[in-house]
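Long-time lurker. I teach an intro course on protein structure, and each term I like to show students one example going from raw sequence to a predicted 3D structure in token notation. This year I'd like something fresh instead of my usual example. Would anyone be willing to generate the tokens for the chain below so I can use it in lecture? Attribution to the forum is fine with me.
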Amino acid sequence: MPAKQTSKTTRLPLPVPADRRRFRQRLLTWYRRHGRDLPWRKTTDPYHILVSEIMLQQTQVDRVLPKYAEWLEKYPSLDALAAAPEKEVNEAWYPLGYNIRPRRLHTIAREAVARYGGQLPAEEETLLSFKGIGAYTAGAIRSFAFHERAAILDTNVARVLFRVFIGEGDPKSHAMRRHLWAVSETLVPTRHVFDFNQALMDFGAMVCVARNPRCLVCPMTKSCRAFPFNPSRETRTKTPRRRTPK
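-- Reply from a regular --
Happy to contribute to a lecture. Here you go:
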């Protein structure tokens, strides 16, 4: 989709209340019909959610599913992970790749045991103090484990919000990234936060995909700012990847 350059001096508007309500309603309706049945959506254990989020970075969901179950059987808690030798932890991660991730998990586990009695805290500032937990992962833990009103912004979510609410400009610029965080924070509902954030990720992975977005079956088409710029409007989809949030 062609994009125009957005002036650095231009302040992009946030979605108005009517647009927010419409987006939430359509997204949640879609999710209740098409959302994926994933094991980490059946728990509110902060550690289990942390494991799933770290594993999903740059890795396909179908590769994560067996390793997620295997990992939690071997390391069912932060205490168990913290007590394990580093070499064993790294070997247990195979074959997911991107091997900085098990070291991050191991470091987080040891810090949680040393400072917080083997638990992950709910406070955003405290979560962000852990090396290896960034803004996206903190938001995921807060919304999925503690059901707090917390925004998320990974690659899939950023793509959805950019296309639906902005449509033009450089989606990878720092200014745009900050604006997309503001859009995400504005959209988070006071109720159904868990479902809403999960729905955002599924929608970006299944409908509003990076290449050949499925515009013909998209419930957002009528209000999507990027739709007029998509000449193909294909209905095909590819296996999604989650990228490391920034």
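Some talking points for your students: The two ends are 23 Å apart (CA to CA). The chain is about 50% helix and 0% strand.
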